[in-house]
Amino acid sequence: MMAEFLKSQFPWQLADVEISTIAKKLSSDEGAFTLPKVEPRLPLAPFPLAKKLSIC
Fold first, then answer.
1. What are the tens digits of pLDDT across the range 9-54?
2. In the prediction, which pLDDT does 24 show?
3. Which long-range contacts (CB under 8 A, 24 or more apart) does 15-19 make?
4. How far, in Å, CA of 56 to CA of 2, rounded?
5. Judging by beta carbons within 10 Å of its beta carbon (0-12, 13-18, 19+), is residue 9 exposed, middle or buried?
6. Does the structure show a pLDDT above 90 at 56?
7. Residue 21's closest CA among 11, 10, 31, 7?
8. CA 32, CA 39: separation in Å to the nearest integer?
9. Quick check: 36 and 21 in contact, CB under 8 A?
10. What distance in Å separates the CA atoms of residue 41 and residue 30, rounded to the nearest whole number?
11. What sign has the CA pseudo-torsion 41, 45, 49, 53?
12. HEC string of 1-56?
């Protein structure tokens, strides 16, 4: 669901990217800037990098 949402909100930037690729990146454990997978209907926790940068 999140991958479809992102593709719909950024149509030009993600025009050449498949929804399956977006979903894979959302659930990947690689790298410091990888977005964690968020399950629908669960509360959102601050991203760890935001805490380090003191922006939340």
1. 999 999 999 999 998 887 656 666 666 667 788 887 766 666 677 7
2. 85
3. none
4. 22
5. exposed
6. no
7. 7
8. 20
9. no
10. 25
11. positive
12. CHHHHHHHHCCCCCCCCCHHHHHHHHCCCCCCCCCCCCCCCCCCCCCHHHHHCCCC
Q: Which two tokens stand for residue 30?
A: 């690689």
Is the pTM higher than 0.90?
Answer: no
Terminal Cα-to-Cα distance of the chain (whole angstroms): 25
Which one is predicted more confidently, 56 or 25? Answer: 25
Please name which of 32, 34, 15, 12 lies closest in space to residue 23, comparing C-alpha atoms. 34
